[in-house]
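Weekly modeling sync, notes
Attendees: S.R. (lead), two postdocs, one rotation student

Agenda item 3: backlog of single-chain predictions. S.R. asked that every request posted to the team notebook include the full sequence so nobody has to chase files. The rotation student volunteered to paste the first one in as an example of the format we agreed on. Action items at the bottom.

Example entry:
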Amino acid sequence: MTGPVLGLLLVLLAPTPVAAGLLVTVGDVTASTARLWVEAPVPGPVDLRLEPAAPAVGGGRLIAGEGGRAHVTLGGLEPGRRYRYRLRAGGSTVEGTFLTAPAPDAPAPVRLAWSGDLGARGHCRTPQGWRAVDAIAERRPDLVLLVGDTIYADHVCHPPAVPGAAFVATTLEGFRARHRYNRADPAVQRLLRRTSVSAIWDDHDVRNNFAGPSEPLAAIGRQAFLDYWPVAAPPGEVGRLYRSLRWGGLLEIFVLDTRGYRSPNWRPDGPDKTMLGEAQRRWLLDAVAGSTARWKVLVSSVPLSIPKGWPFADSWAGRSVLGWVTGFASERDTILRALQERGVDRLVVLAADVHFGAFMTHRPWAGLVVHELVAGPLAARAKSPEPPAAGLGTQVHLAHGGTPTFGELSVDRDGLTARLFDGNGRVLGTTTWPP
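Predicted structure, as returned to the notebook:
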């Protein structure tokens, strides 16, 4: 290989630093706490002011360590209260706001937004920022769920995209650089300074359609994800991505990790194939069945009913190619039956990943209703809607493809309302279910 060609390849494969000031994200908010993530221009002290005042951080000062990053739990907060913060470091100042969750027994309304798939090839950053992300911010949701593919680590961002992501991530610093690149987008920063966010990974946060236990890059991909997202893991389980978020008496959110424990996609579907792993599946059954919230919402980065991946299915829904049936429908149906046996008769599932929007209701058997709501992409190639697989007794309420989409879920005493928006914030459809 000639010298100039080799030099060009090294430029494409090596991360380029992203110039950015002070970056901030508030996530996994509860009634009394919030996780604060900061990346300062240089390591060192970060001054924090919180209004109204709370016993958040001793002396109001954080210490940004490696890479200028700091994670801290803000404690002693009041339920259902809007807080404002001001951060100063390295000559930069950032101001923002977030809302704490209501008390667990308070029947307070909530409005959340969700979508996924941010920054694929051909849809990388521009100087103005991603329009669909700004459209979410303009809705001013109480919280935002990013349902997978928060980066496209396995895609190369070519000019005229903002420089900084013209490489495929294969190292820890490379994955960090891809997260930093997306986080520094102006629209992303505008959104994250208006509300809190809870994020989960999916395949492109590491590599297309990967399965964690057999993927060599999964460990460093997970580490980079945790370095850049404020995830409130249970005590003693650092690195765990599946968790629950309670929002008052009406809503509890159960965020699933559909990548870290899954069997390889190529394995035939059956009782010994798993997407969640034994420990996460047991947690899910116990947590959902034990929840006293009126609405139980599962966040699954891949859909329940829409097949994706070729030739082997990558979502819960099955796919048959030349008689070889793959997918995770066996485990999906086992989970749904177990929840029904424990007294759960209604679920809401939020998903992304298929690059179109769809609202569906499943009645797989008598006594169980599952509302599946799919949105996305935020910034990736939008696809045409595909029909759900058979086996769940599905009714499709609406489907929309060809444009970016995000969803909005409003919960109050009168029931649950789901809305699908295009990337400019135009309503595409609305569906309501009574309490």
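Discussion: group reviewed the output briefly. The mean pLDDT is 93.
Action items: rotation student to repeat for the remaining queue; S.R. to check formatting next week.
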